[in-house]
Design goal:
Layout: H1 2-12, E1 15-21, H2 26-37, E2 41-49, H3 52-55, H4 57-67, E3 72-75, E4 81-86, E5 90-95, E6 108-112, H5 114-126, H6 136-143, H7 151-154
Parallel strand pairs: 1-2, 2-3
Antiparallel strand pairs: 1-4, 4-5, 5-6
Helix pairs in contact: 2-4
């Protein structure tokens, strides 16, 4: 995903970005810091799974020191999304790949503008800024996972299902 984001930034010009990921490797933080220093990234937001707070604590501190103390949102997350907003584009990258290098087949799509981009930006705007020490239950509540479906929508999952006879 980081390579796709870098390729899009080359086309977009100076941009505001957001990255949704489950975890981060040091290489990706270094890439993004370099981009900020050369002017391609104006502002950045990381939406990351709260489980990464321990594994990636040093990297998250480094991210915050580069992009500001409000540049991280902790959620219950396994999404792989990047948004890039520049004077020219409103790009939304989605896929199955994390930010890290992975030489396997992955799914990826890219759209420009549209309702899907706006939906992601609205979700980001609703995410509260949680302290690094926030409890898991607070992160779960902030993620609004329990609000994703109405109880009657989930009724199809109740009981034991027989898939084959």
């Amino acid at each position: 995903m980081i390579d796709a984001a870098l390729a899009c930034l080359d086309q977009a010009g100076p941009a505001d970005i957001s990255l949704w990921t489950w975890t981060v490797a040091e290489y990706e933080i270094e890439c993004l810091e370099r981009l900020r220093n050369d002017g391609r990234v104006r502002n950045a937001l990381m939406v990351i799974d709260h489980g990464a707070r321990n594994k990636n604590a040093a990297l998250i501190r480094q991210w915050k020191s580069t992009f500001g103390p409000e540049s991280v949102r902790y959620v219950v997350n396994h999404s792989k999304i990047v948004t890039i907003r520049s004077e020219r584009f409103r790009l939304l990258l989605r896929g199955s790949m994390n930010l890290n290098f992975n030489p396997r087949f992955e799914q990826f799509d890219l759209t420009e503008g549209g309702e899907d981009f706006e939906l992601v930006k609205r979700i980001e705007a609703e995410l509260p800024i949680l302290d690094d020490s926030a409890k898991g239950e607070d992160v779960y509540k902030a993620s609004k996972v329990a609000e994703a479906f109405e109880p009657e929508q989930l009724s199809i999952f109740s009981g034991v299902k027989v898939w084959a006879k």
